[in-house]
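Sample pair:
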Amino acid sequence: GINTHLTTPIADVDMVTELLGGDLLNADPSSLNQNLEDYLTNEDNYVESTGVHVQAAFQFKLLMIDTFLVYRYTIADDVVPGSSGFGSVNVRLGMGF
């Protein structure tokens, strides 16, 4: 399948410097909470990437109980730092009447 990802940026020295008004030594940290919230909720700062995924699933049924175990590996740059992909496991339980 094809994926699109939007993630918030990871904090680094440049980001903290910007949040504190450009001066780390004489900054007033009292407004840091609001500045951080504004920075992280501004969609212009989001990291956007696309990728693909491969998944495998097992299904188990017993009478009216249904269970799925799904493993998905997503290949996408800039989502997890230092990695070109990431895996996820899903367990889904269901009951039908």
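The first helix runs from residue 13 to 19.
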